Structures are given as structure tokens and as C-alpha cells.
Amino acid sequence: MGCFSCFNSSEDEKLNPVEESSKPQKQSQPTVSNNISRLPSGGEKKLSSKSNVRSKRELLLPRDELEQIAAHTFAFRDLVAATMDFHPDTFLGEGGFGCVYKGRLETTGQVVAVKQLDRNGLQGNREFLVEVLMLSLLHHPNLVNLIGYCADGDQRLLVYEFMPLGSLEDHLHDLPPDKEALDWNMRMKIAAGAAKGLEFLHDKANPPVIYRDFKSSNILLAEGFHPKLSDFGLAKLGPTGDKSHVSTRVMGTYGYCAPEYAMTGQLTVKSDVYSFGVARPMFNDRRRFIKLADPKLKGRFPTRALYQALSVASMCIQEEAATRPPIADLVTAISYLANQAYDPNKNDRGGRNDGGGKFDLAGSEKEDSPRETARILNRDIDRKRAVADAKMWGESSREKRRQSEKRTSESNSTTG
Q: What is the CATH classification number for the domain harbouring 31?
């Protein structure tokens, strides 16, 4: 989730940073374009990739696919002008497949982020195609908005809405002395929003989309620290019908990959759930749990809520994918934590307080919540039972919410 001190992606390495082989796959009436799953293959026109790689291979592009999407098409000269010829002063950062610049569109005056993909890498070309297709079809408040793209000659650029607060990683690691660290409440808010983005990809998109690169550097922050998932170049369409997984070459970031995916190449939405909870090295010693809290918090966090967040992370990183909770249950759990405001001025410091109240659901007593965190985090506990408790907790929360909405609706109709 990137809210604890051990979630540092600044030193992570990409797994297999070379072109991923792709074969045609049949999808059953997907809402997300099935052309994504078969890049680069069948019914295509050729685009020369002017690169310095040893083999001068050609990248294949689905015929007329780019012309059919809704994103705006930019001429390369437009983006040169927007970024002042990619001036160093407009440079925002560098990702695995290219550099990102801040720009201002001359026609509208809109401030944007322009990602220029590395022309020396074939993988960057494939990432470009996947990202354009994915973000043109998938829209959600917790996914970054793609404004348009440029495919002039061998130039490949993506134009996004500008996210003024940078990435979550920028606010967690290597902070300058004058920069204040994110407080507990904001971290929980960001974690909840990121989980909602994953929930949309897993449960709302048809077929489901597996993000495959969930980490703090890929969570961008808008005004008010509103989180949005970015970088969809490694995204993959999930299994459909009676299929339990999709098989693919292992890609992503070292340390965030689910074990079954890293070992077998079998990918499911539970692979993203694993990445959401990564904090494994610290779970081997219960005495170190409190150290999972970022030292920059300076002890200003509710111990009970911290342990509950750790229990969620613990369930996410189960060795067996089937025992990890679905993303919808994670949204319920993290949203609850995000809604429990913690005031460090009204509680003891040093992490000894519990946030000023019982850990409950919509006013219920604690027996409706998962088992005590210390027991959940015990490495000898029956993990499947812990997951079942979390699911029951989520169902209880949703049922209470439905009952509350029903009473409110009935009350309004009576008074009306």
C-alpha cells in the first residue's frame, strides 16, 4: 500500500525489461478492446521501429485501431511547443519506458504531463499501444486520465492530465528537510482510493484488467492528495469464462510480484492483491510490527488502526492466491480505516492510542470486526480463517450500509 516505511520502490528493478511476446487470444465479448490481448498480431500494418537494438525488427500495429479510439491525436510539433522543446526545466521524472515533462497546450492553455517513450526500446512501443487502448476505454476517478497521444513517425508520446502533487513515492521517501511527511489520515485516504482503482479494474471492467505494476511510484496525486493509478503499459486482460488465469511472461517490479506469478507465469487479479499488501520482510517478528509505521509519522498514529492495516496487508500476501481476499473486501476494510479520523492533538503520542474510539463498523461493537490484530498477525494462525473473518466483516459492513440507506429512504418518503 505504500503507507509504511518498508514500501520503497525507488530501488526496485523491472523484471524482464524486454519486449513481451504476445499471441492472439479469444475473448468473450469484452468491454475492453480485445486488440489489447493480441498485440502485436493479426490484421495489422507495420510501423518501423528506428532503434539501436541489434535486431532491426518491426513492431506491428493493429490496423486502424488508433484511429478508432476517443483520445485526441497530437502532432509532434504541438507537444514540442507545449514543453518548450522538452526543456530541462519542464522535466518531471523518468520511468521505465521514457521521460515525463510538464507542458501547456497552446490551443487550450491546459497544463498536461507528456510522456515521451524511449525510441530505442521495442517494449516502449508496446507499452504505448496498451496504455492508449486501456485508458481510452477505462474511466474512473482513481485512474489517471489520458488526454491524447502522438504517433508521428517513430515518435511515441502520451499526454495525461497533470497531477500537481507528483507520486505517492515522492511523499514517502527521501523527503527534503522542509517537506512535511504525510500524516496517518492522508495515508489511509490514499490507500483507500488506490484500492478503489484496483477494484474498478478487477470487478467493473469486462473482461477484468490485471494492473501488474502496483507500487507507490505508480500512484499519482491530484489536488487534495486524490490518488490515481497510472502507467498501464504492463496491464493485461484477465481470464474469462472458465479460465482461472492467463499465462504470460513475467513482467513488473521486483519485490512486488506474487510468488505464483513469478514462478509459473500464471497471472490473476490476486497477483495485484499481493502487490497491494507487500510488506513481507517485517512480518517475521511480531516485536517489529510497530516499526512498520513510517518513522516520519513520529509516533502520531493510532496503534489499533495500524495493526488493522497490517492485518489487511498480511492477508494480501498469502502464498496461495486463493486465500487472498478479493479487492472489494480490501476496499471495505481500508475505506473504514480512512473514515476513522485520527487527531494526534487529542490522543497520547508515541503510537499508544487507538484513535479515540473503538474499532467498529458504522457504530457497531467490535465483535463485528475481524479478530484481534495480534492474533491475525501471528505467523502460526490459520490464514484461511482470518480471510473468512475479513469477508464476514466486509459483508456485515455492506449490509449495515444498505439497511441505513433503506431507513433514510423510508424516512424521506414518510416526511415527504
A: 3.30.200.20
What is the CATH number for 357? 1.10.510.10
Which DSSP helix (H) or strand (E) runs through 211?
none
The verdict on whether 213 is a catalytic residue reads yes
Distance CA 11, CA 225 (A): 24
Q: Indicate the length of the chain as a whole number.
A: 416
Whether residue 60 sits in one domain with residue 187: no
SS3 370: coil
Show the domain range for 140: 17-161
Is-contact 111 103, C-beta < 8 A?
A: yes
Q: pTM to 2 decimals?
A: 0.72
Around Cβ 223, how many Cβ atoms within 10 Å?
8
Nearest to 389 by CA among 405, 366, 357, 355: 366
Do residues 117 and 99 lie in contact, with contact meaning Cβ atoms separated by under 8 Å? no
Give φ, ψ of 288 to 5 degrees. -100, 0
For β-strands 157-161 and 146-150, DSSP reports them as antiparallel
Catalytic residue among 213, 231, 272, 329: 213
41 and 92 share one domain: yes
Binding residues for ATP: 115
Q: What is the number of alpha carbons within 13 Å of residue 346 lying toward its C-beta?
A: 7
Residues comprising the binding site?
115
pLDDT digits (tens, 9 = 90+) for 315-369: 998 889 999 999 999 999 999 999 988 988 875 444 444 443 333 333 333 333 3
